[in-house]
Amino acid sequence: MEQLEKVSSFQEFVQIFSQFGNEMVEFAHLTGDRQNDLKDEKKKARMAASRAVLEKCTMMLLTASKTCLRHPDCESARINKDGVFHRMRLALEQVIEIVTDSRPNGENEMAPISIYSGIKEFKNKVEGLRENLYFLSKENLSTMLEVILEHTEDFTDSAYTSHEHREHILELSKQAKMELEQLVSVWMQAQNQKTKDLMEDLEVAILKTCQCMNELKREVHSAATSLAADLLKYHTDHMVLKALKITGVEGNLEAVAEYTCKLSEQKEQLVEMCRLLRHVSGTEPLEITCIHAEDTFQVTGPQIISAAETLALHPSSKIAKENLEVFCEAWESQLSDMSMLLREINDVFEGRRGEKRVYLSLPRPGKHNANLKALKPVKLDTEEQAKIAKLGLELHLLTSDVDSETEKWEDQENEIVQHGQGMSSMAYSMYLFTRGEGLLKTTQDLFHQAEIFATEGTKLASALHAFSDQVHDDDKPVLLLEAEKLISMCKQLQITAKASVQGKSATFTKVR
């Protein structure tokens, strides 16, 4: 990474990035294995977040660096590139902390307190009074409630909380104080005189206090999840991103400035949504996922803006356009991840938790072969999902290498370049499939794409044969040998893609 940050020539960058890509694949394997080994769910979630950042930033680093090399005097391009390197360094530092079980300068990990975890602890203490009237002080209980109610101000102070939700939260907060006062009064009396009537009154006070806290929990959950659902639905059209791409290509700096303001507003909404969801996420791993999502929106927003400004300053630049596309894709991908996160948070709240997540892309009836029997979705275990993800990342980095090589050709209309770019584009779609994203939704979509990929590979081999006549005698046998290898591999891919399989294990093996 340090070498990549310092390069000054495109040739040098391509050389070092190829090495960097190989190292990132190996690193993904190692961190994936480590993530599976971890017993602590919080550390697992933090490792998953770091790995997601590193994977997505690898593509960003490629296009941002190339844009900076192509436009060395462009300040917005430099800012864009520096942002990617900074984020990757932070992610690497977090991986180091997890695998070495240490934090820099001996800092203690300060986990942010959520309303859910606060209410859970508070209720445990209140219900503990049934067994022991003396194990904590009334001041401790009052302080715990104060902390919870302070956090509810994140909802009542938010511009995005509806008036109805705000009023209900304020009413329940006031009621919670009253219920606790009543509980403390009965509790203090019971400490002095443990009569049957007082113990019955204490039980009633405990039940009423816990019921009030449950209602408060339900209200903040409703406020956070309804806001999230509305925002995610509102932003699914990606109108601001589309407008930035169009105005950037037009070189319209004024319009780009207008839409960057709108994107900044959208970013603030989504960051606030993540903060409120964290309070109601229900588990520590989901809290960490919410924090990761908040960071992603916080960082990616300004990066899209700097990429759009660069394109507006250099509207004919192909790499500046591609760079903006990559950052916009990262934004869209995070929005898609938020929909899944929202479902998981609702599942925890409703008590539908414990089963492994279904990897919905494996396998389902495909649109490309109507004669196939309908297949039921199957659940991949963690190891199988990790294997698919690793293969996907390797494919992703190979497409980056191909794109870097084809860009060197002066004649972009050349048949070899066009076939290479076509195969790279298809390979990228397959990579997105391993992440549960993109246009390939089922295994049959993937297999159909593999057949087309193999056909394109055969065309590339044919073009290489024709091109070999222009190559020096020493290099010609090497080129022809590679072309023959490509033909052989494409034939094998065609056979595999067309082979009929049944059952989870066979389908998984075919996908690999």
UniProtKB/TrEMBL annotation:
Its main location: cytoplasm. It is found in: Cytoplasm. GO terms for biological process: cell adhesion; Rho protein signal transduction. Gene3D superfamilies: Alpha-catenin/vinculin-like. GO terms for molecular function: actin filament binding. Keywords: Cytoplasm. The keyword Chloroplast does not apply. SUPFAM superfamilies: alpha-catenin/vinculin-like. This is Alpha-catulin.
